[in-house]
Amino acid sequence: QKLNQLSQINTGESKPKSVFPSIEGSPKYCCSMDHKIPCFYGYEAIHYCGVLVLNEIIHRGIINYWDDFNTLLNFTFEKELQIPFEEHPIIFTETSFNPKFCREKLIELMFEEKKIPLFYIKNDAALSLLASRNKTGVVIEAGDGSTCIVPFYEGHPIRDAINKINNGGGIYGSVVKINIGGSDIVKYFMNSANIDGRGFVHFNNLFFECYNMKEKYFYVAKDYEEELKNVNPTKEIVHIIDDRIKYSFLDKQRFMCPEIFFNPNMSDLDFDGLPKEIVKSILKCDVTIQNELF
Questions:
Q1: Fewest beta carbons less than 10 Å away: which of 136, 143, 163, 204?
Q2: If you write DSSP's letter for every residue of 238-249 in order, what string do you get?
C-alpha cells in the first residue's frame, strides 16, 4: 500500500523508468521579486515538506486538482522522461471508481492541449488480472487510501459486485465504502509504537519516514496467532535515520499493524475485515459463476 504514485514505463521495458508520489509542494513563504513561486514534486517535495505546503494531486485514485495535474504532467515528460508529448502514445490506468467526468477531462487534456497522438485508458484491476494470464477472478487492490475488490468474468468487471473500501462509511447501492488503506496502517503504527516525532522539523517528515518503515519492515503473517506465540515479546527493531535519529519499536508490530486489514477489531476501522469483504463481493455475483470466483 504505497503512496499515490505516478509511474512511467516504455514499451518493451520490464520496469518503470520513473516512479514518484503524485505530491506537489509550494513554499509556505516566498520572497521572489518576480513573483514566480517554485514548485517541487514527488520525493523532492517530501524531502522539503517541512517548509512546503503539500498538495496531494491524486487522492484515493481520483484527480482532484486539474491545473496542478497539468503541471505534474509537464514535470513528468519534460524532467523525468525528457520526451515530447506529441511523439508518444500513452496508456493511462484508472481506478475502478473513476468518475466519467474525470475520464472525459483527462481525454480532453491529452488530445487538445498535449497533442498526444494515441491515448488509451484501462482499468488497473483489469490489467492486473491480465498480467496473471487470467480473464476470470477477483482482484484486490490495496492502495494508500482505499482498497478495491473487483470480480471479473471473461475479462469484464462485474459492476454490481465491486466493493471499494475507502475513507467514509456506508453502503451506496452495491458499493460498500469503509476505512482501509496503507495510510491507516501507518497511523496505527505511529499510535501503537508511540512515535513522538523527535528530531523532525515537521509532522509530514515524520509521517513519510513511518511510511518508509512500513515498506522496509512490515509483513503479513500467514498464521497470526502462531506468529504471536513464537515472537519474542521484548525484541526491538532499531531504525536509524541519517545517522542521527534512532527509533525503536517492538518486533511484533511488524506483523501486528498490517493485521488490521484482516482483524479490524484491533483498531477503530469500521468494516468486516478483508476476507469477509471479499466473500460479500463474490456473493453479489450471479450464482452460476461464484464457484469460479472462489
A1: 136
A2: EEEETTTEEEEE
Q: Pick the closest to residue 63 from 26, 91, 101 (CA basis).
A: 101
69-83 pLDDT, tens digit per residue, is 888 888 888 888 888
Contact, 102 vs 96, CB < 8 A? no
DSSP string, 169-192: --EETTEE----SHHHHHHHHHHH
- pTM as predicted: 0.72
**Alpha carbon separation from 247 to 48, 57, 204, 254 (Å, rounded):** 21, 31, 17, 14
State pLDDT tens for residues 207-236.
Answer: 777 888 888 899 998 898 998 899 888 888
- For 40, phi then psi, to 5°, come to -120, 150
Q: SS3 for 159?
A: helix
One-letter identity of residue 294:
F
The answer to whether the CB of 74 falls within 8 A of the CB of 47 is: no
Of 7, 281, 55, which is closest to residue 171 (Cα–Cα)?
281
- What single string gives the DSSP state of each residue in 38-73? P-EEHHHHHHTGGGEEEEESEETTEE--HHHHHHHH
Which residues are CB-contacts of 199 (< 8 A; sequence separation ≥ 6)?
A: 241, 244, 245
Residues (pLDDT < 50) of the chain are 1-3, 167-177, 199-201
Distance between terminal CA atoms of the chain? 24
By the 8 A CB rule, do 98 and 58 touch? no
Give the CA distances from residue 175 to residues 120, 158, 239, in Å, rounded to whole numbers and listed in that order: 26, 12, 40
Question: Alpha-carbon distance 218 to 215, whole Å?
Answer: 6
CA trace torsion 49, 54, 57, 62 (10° rounding) = 100
